């Protein structure tokens, strides 16, 4: 639905080409220089990096949101903010490379390599800043966390990748999102008072408030909750039901008739931020009941496959879960299996 045209200019595969423009020529006069800008290893962009940047502005940015205002935010505001915050600009280059890798299969390996290099470098810059994010530093960190979530979906999937955990370890993208959540919880009033925060942030906060008040039952999730309460270890029931409650709220928002396509996308991804920590610990150990809850999340992912960066995740995740579960627990996830149309 939002897939970009593959007719963008061809890139030079030789990354050594440095016929480029100075970063000072690219920086908008309205962007205030910050100390972070000095973290750029060089004042020059290669032609390859400029092509990635161009592709993001003209194509990739239009595929990251469903709402026209949100698309313009990704297209205009995020790149501009990236001129003062290198990790955000590297995130922009990373997602652009991932998008081009999908459109140019003959250059896929090289593009994927560049995407991962840029995002690894960006994450190493951003992670230390999260604990001290305040004032004008918060917006770029917040937007980088959003971009990192999208990059996580867009990059190649490893066989042992359960999205939230991979090989029993929490990935960097999840730690970044968790850091943002902790900051909002501890410094919420100060963050909300920032004049630099944009309309997209406030739209997310408004949706979060709706999420908190979304308490209607969902028939299939209620069936799963009843099964958990009657058959699971009593010591795990509170953690499992808390994880299920957060998912139920996402289902409520997703399937509400007055929710826009943008709100549906955000309500699904919101679960990744809202999941309680004790439930995460269960997922890290591949707890069967927790994996059953995760299987129901695949229903929302399947409904979002018009977004290229989410396409294929529902089948990937449900297959990993089904393979891990024994025959008894496979009966618990019959509804999501049938709903998304996957068969073993």
What does this 3D model show about the protein?
The protein has 344 residues and is mainly α. It has 2 domains: 23-197, no CATH class; 208-340, no CATH class. It has 17 helices and no strands. Helix 2 (47-58) runs antiparallel to helix 3, helix 2 (47-58) packs across helix 4 (86-103) and helix 10 packs antiparallel against helix 11 (237-254). The radius of gyration is 21 Å and the shape is globular. Mean pLDDT is 82; it is low at 1-33.
Strand content: under 5%
User: Which series of helices and strands comes N to C?
Assistant: HHHHHHHHHHHHHHHHH
- Helical residue percent band: 55-70%
User: What sort of overall outline do the alpha carbons produce when their principal axes are compared?
Assistant: globular
Please give the domain count: 2
Gyration radius (Cα, Å) is 21 Å
Mean of the pLDDT scores? Answer: 82
Low-confidence regions: 1-33
- Structural class given helices, strands, pairing? mainly alpha
Counting H and I runs of at least 4 residues, what is the number of helices?
A: 17
Number of strands: 0
Oligomer: single chain
Span of the ends, CA to CA: 28 Å
